[in-house]
């Protein structure tokens, strides 16, 4: 039961634009796998190819060893939230889910169960057109859960959710993974994945950047820096540079130091009798690692590129 | 809005994986019956569809009542020549009725699919059931059944209403009169044929306004300009359009015999041709497109 979703050499070309390029990765059960990349990196296109909605230019994607379209009752195999529910605004939430349940011969009670599960039981009879973005995300999650599937795909599920909803959805993903399911969650924000994902698949401009555990990914990030404030900045900068550190003055009295721990900076200052007003270690974050790896591969960036 | 623990997903998940590959056969669900039920739920759960069907039938009955009452009042003033040319069936279901029924049904068919494209629902639908051809076949079947019922209601309802009014002048017709049954069938079948054409145009164009306008143009507006003429090839081309065939043959109790005009058999063929071509376009195009 190692590899539930297997993507091999997946490529998608739209006219002259290469949206996804020779992408290969696997997603395993029992984990929440974060699918990360800047806007336009090809995440949605990849998910749609896994679901057979878009036809790959080359390569393949399989779920449990077969292409997903070979499954007849799709909801029983893979639950997916693609774009804020993808529902007709004129229908009620209950009618939307009822039609889906019927198409897969699922019992009627599943509709009530999933509406309850996502907290929309009170809005079951209301038209989807009157829903907020957060409510439509919940409806999309409800439709993904409808068939009680072993594999779940969520494309940017956190968009539009309030803080309470974000916390709820994280708990839901972790629980689904703990039940042994395979959970793939896409996002363009590292911070969303930090407390949710165990593994990461990171892409940029349609190419694979990383496919590893969260810890391994974090280790790739910039090494920590130390911020130090002193009235004798020039003297301290010279001393630290002598000890092999990379020193950047932030202002007349503030230095950013890389390559030395906060303790070593303090000792060096003490040895030379330089007073310190502040000494702060700045941990490297996943966000740093993500930014560093993807900045040069972002599709859209503010300002002109050199 | 936190989900209570009681509503957790039912139990441990089913055994699945390489050991039990889920092949396209032998697995439960996605039987045609389930797909028909799903498509019926989709069609009937949209208030706009129920309004279109309900108000459409009422509107056509209203128009029939009005024109039949006008004929009832005007009858004593007609001279014998006018009386000889009076067709009681035209009061029940005229060319305007034909156009309305075709536009209404065609729009219902087009909206059944462009409504899914425009809202993204098509992705949800085809993720739930990846067998695209079966999904569209079920959608076409449900549309055909619903519009056949609505078309029959309009055809029979307008006839019975109109003849009830006209019979008071002794000029009404009965269901058993010659030609009546065929005209009523031709009136009713305009609805499912138009709905299938709307569905086909909708799948091809995927754009709401474009599909509705395209369907109306193809079914009613363009053939409205056709007139029998001296070029036989043009006459034969015109005869392939259902509304032209209805106007010049199937909608008439006693269709005139002429080389330039469609025959009864040829007109039924035109109906069938459009229904079949629209269905084929629907099933073929849906297979090829990215969503």
How would you characterize this protein structure?
The complex is a heterodimer of chains A (306) and B (291). Chain A is of the alpha/beta class. Chain A has helices at 43-50, 93-103, 109-117, 133-145, 163-178, 190-194, 214-219, 233-242, 262-271, 286-294, and strands at residues 5-14, 17-27, 32-36, 58-63, 78-81, 151-155, 182-187, 199-204, 207-213, 225-229, 246-251, 254-258, 278-282. In chain A, the strands form 3 sheets. In chain A, strands 5-6-7-3-8-9 form a 6-stranded mixed sheet, sandwiched between helices. Chain A has a 4-stranded antiparallel sheet with strand order 11-12-10-13, covered by helices on one side. In chain A, a hairpin with a 2-residue loop joins strand 1 and strand 2 (17-27). In chain A, helix 2 crosses helix 3 and helix 3 crosses helix 4. The two termini of chain A are 47 Å apart. With 291 residues, chain B is mostly helical. Chain B is 69% helix and 0% strand. In chain B, 41% of the residues are buried. The chains are: A alpha/beta (306), B mainly alpha (291). Chains A and B meet through helix 2, helix 3, helix 4 and helix 5 of A and helix 1, helix 5 and helix 6 of B.
